[in-house]
Amino acid sequence: MVAKSWFDLREIHPGVWSLSEPGHLEEVISYLVLGRDRAVLVDTGMGIGDLRRAVLRLTRLPILVVNTHADFHHCGANHEYQEVAAHAAEVPRIERGWSPEEVAEAMLPHKIWAPLPAGFDPGEYRVEPSSVTRLLAEGDDIELGGRRLRVLETPGHTPGSLCLWDEHNSILFTGDTLSPTAMSAAGSDSDPEQLLESMTRLAQLAGEVARICPGHHQAPLGPDFLAEAAEAVSRVRAGVSRIEPAGEGFVRHRFRRFSLVLPGQVEEPALAVPDTRPPVPKKPAARKKGKTQSGRRPAGHAPSR
Ligand SMILES: [Zn+2]
Ligand SMILES: [Zn+2]
What we know:
Strand order of the largest sheet: 1-2-3-4-5-6-7
CATH superfamily: Ribonuclease Z/Hydroxyacylglutathione hydrolase-like
Structural class: alpha/beta
Largest sheet: 7 strands, mixed
Bound molecules: zinc ion
Number of helices: 5
CATH architecture: 4-Layer Sandwich
Shape: globular
Radius of gyration: 22 Å
Helix content: 10-25%
Order of helices and strands: EEEEHEEHHEEEEEEHEHEEE
């Protein structure tokens, strides 16, 4: 069976389209932002569907691809475009590409639930290298003609993660720095403290942001997400978040709508919750031996780097 379309295209604001890929577990979302003279394609998805063709249905303007960061599922169709912009720290991975072995896990059957596009062979899946033609840094403006996107450096998830801020239209494109299900500093080049700082920085735009466009799952998010992100950072820093194991050396801090994966360890119990039981009276004969009552850490505490 052949998929009708791998992409779900929606105009979420005049001149701003989301191109989501709901058939894959990652549910990655790219965005097409139209100006008068050219368009920006924020990320290029998995590289499973024909993104170029989907974009051509929406515009014939020249396209500048902007990668929010260089995780492969945001760079899948980069190679189909001449103009690619990214932060310098992300360039080596974008220009090296990803071999079939490196991305084979994305093709596991349980991760794909929509029919694959005709002609796509999961056994051949790879992400081609692409050339970065423009380096982006804090404060740079990308002019589209009647629309401008400002670059905000938001390192942490990766060193060169960036967000794009369309101030005139109050739209914030956040890549994986703000995401509706999980934010992560579990990558080999992630920096957890920087991620928390970047989340805090974005939260300071509350009051100006009307729509948040993340790199996965659901778009757009409302501005209330910024307050929730700020609250999550506060709770992590205060050591009062609910945590559970998230793989070797990492913990997942659970919040109402999303989680935050950071370095740390859950000792016991597996799910740390505040202990509200009244203290058990000590036996009068018990002698102190210089030990604490138990080896447990305060509930919810997670060490940060
Ligand atoms: Zn990512
Ligand atoms: Zn991602």
